[in-house]
Amino acid sequence: MDARTSPFRARLTQLREVLAREGFDALLVPSADPHLSEYLPGRWQGREWLSGFTGSMGTLVVGQRAAALFADSRYWEQAERELAGSGIELVRIVTAAAPAHLDWLVEQVPRGGTVAVDGQVLGLAAAQALKARLEAAGIRLVTDRDPLDAIWPDRPALPTAPVYTHQAPHAPRSRADKLALVREAMVRHGATHHFVSTVDDIAWITNLRGNDVEYNPVFLAHLLLAPGGGRLFVGAGKVGEAERAALAADGIAVAPYGEAPAALAALGVGATLLLDPKRVTLAFRERVGAGCKVLEAINPSTLAKSRKTQAEAAHVREAMIQDGAAMCEFYAWMEEALAASRPHGPVTELTIDEKLSAARARRAGFVGLSFSTIAGFNANGALPHYRATPESFATIEVNEGEGGLLLIDSGGQYLGGTTDITRVWPVGTPSAAMKRDYTLVLKGTMALSRTRFPRGTLSPMLDAIARAPLWAEGLDFGHGTGHGVGYFLNVHEGPQSISRTIPEPNMAMEPGMITSIEPGLYRPGRWGVRIENLVLNVPAATAEGDTFGEFLEFETLTLCPIDTRCIERSLLRADEIAWLDAYHATVRERLAPRVGGAALAWLHARTAPL
Ligand code: ZN
Ligand code: ZN
């Protein structure tokens, strides 16, 4: 883009005038909203509006002389392109590294200077860390101003999509039960009040769903629970009469979205407010009335929501059948289309997204996709968060005698659960190097899927089990091994994870949690492998009883063949082959009654024993 005509350059100039007027040396613009969600409504995409960078993660820092965007390797190519002409420098950061933008701020802003950030989109815990770092460098932090407001005339309004009830039988726990459970936890903490901002927690507690952000069936709201009742702060017109009456019956009144800060300010002496510093913003914390005591702890709903009930798990097993059947139909089509490009025409990464989404949309209980499909062929598969666009996509084809790997990571939202699965398929004849990589990753997926471990085992210990077959060969991958998954909610859900992140006790596995197991291996510019299943955590019955404490294990939920043509058989042990054969027998048994024709033939071919 021409530097003289870039709208972003003009916006930065305007912003710098505002900063100068207010006496700020720099502005920090995180990718965040007042609910600290992963997907942001347009109103809070200020980082994108200012910089032109459309990636879902990235922090922008604007100083008087320089501006920089901090993004990890997933976004480097895209950021380079989108920032051209804006006058914003791209700073390439390594995933999970220490916050590099803080170093930048400390370097750019003189001692005695001032940094501004909108406290309405800054998590309380993150704010505390930011403040400590800046104060140590003699820099003042101002959090009660949003300088964007003055220069963003057409800032999008709040989303207005209606809220609906997640009905029984798919919502097996009643709202009254969930409220009782949260209130019990409040009593244990000694809290009279509890404030919740995270939209998936609110959706879970209220059994309501919405359509305010892409891929996650949530709605923007805050919830304040008080003795004997509560208030749901939500946009005007979003909650219909029936929902309003049902909420009232459970003691929850509907209030205007903008009134949450005033409700916190009204809390005074005698009130004890429970809030989660990782899930509530600084601005809300600062509004709490002076006499009110504040207790910081993880939201009780975040813990409860992660532990699916047996009834929920039963619905998830059915959703997995629907999802697996959709994939059989899609993959049967894809293999046929790849084998004979006529009459279908060439298969591209975009066709895959379109056809796979259509196959899911035909299944019972389907609501929408759980994230944007990643279909990456060869070099594109080496980009863990690749997304094909109409401007840039690959055609799935290889020259005679050559081979390639096609990685497809996709998922759906069903009324009875949320899915997320990655498979890798051969195109043509994959090379020995491709097969070796594929088999080593598969060994990691299988090793962790079969693991038994004592309850309370820290997350990095499980992470290492999936990496061990790769580590043995001097290989590794740059993302976590697994993330929690919601129940007809966010595909990324805490508190548990399987990763190298320095663990907290509430990140450990508990029975009922649904988590992904997705080790990978990426050869930049060549190919990528990732094999992902969702697993349910269940108690393990061991021969020792509970002599050595309580043990846990995983039930694999995802139902879809794992390609065996890419396997280098000499790298698998007999017990690994037996696990894979048994998995395929289960996949065949559960999916065969739900598919027919070419899909059934494909299922039989791809689940044949090794
Ligand atoms: Zn995935
Ligand atoms: Zn995943």
Give the strand line-up of the largest sheet.
4-3-2-1-5-6
Summarize the amount of helix as a percent range: 25-40%
Tally of separate domains:
3
Rounded to an integer in angstroms, the radius of gyration calculated over CA atoms is 25 Å
Our estimate of the beta-strand percent is 15-25%
Q: What's the CATH H-level superfamily name of the largest domain? A: Creatinase/methionine aminopeptidase superfamily
Task: Profile the largest sheet.
Answer: 6 strands, mixed
Describe the structure in your own words:
This protein has a 6-stranded mixed sheet, sandwiched between helices. The chain folds into 3 domains: 7-150, 3-Layer(aba) Sandwich (Creatine Amidinohydrolase, Chain A, domain 1); 164-298, 3-Layer(aba) Sandwich (Creatine Amidinohydrolase, Chain A, domain 1), CATH 3.40.350; 307-606, Creatinase/methionine aminopeptidase superfamily (Creatine Amidinohydrolase). The protein is 34% helix and 21% strand. β10 (221-226) and β11 (229-234) form a beta hairpin. It is globular, with a radius of gyration of 25 Å. α12 (310-339) crosses α18 (597-606). It is built from 18 helices and 28 strands. The protein has 610 residues and is of the alpha+beta class. The longest helix has 30 residues, at 310-339. One zinc ion binds next to loops.
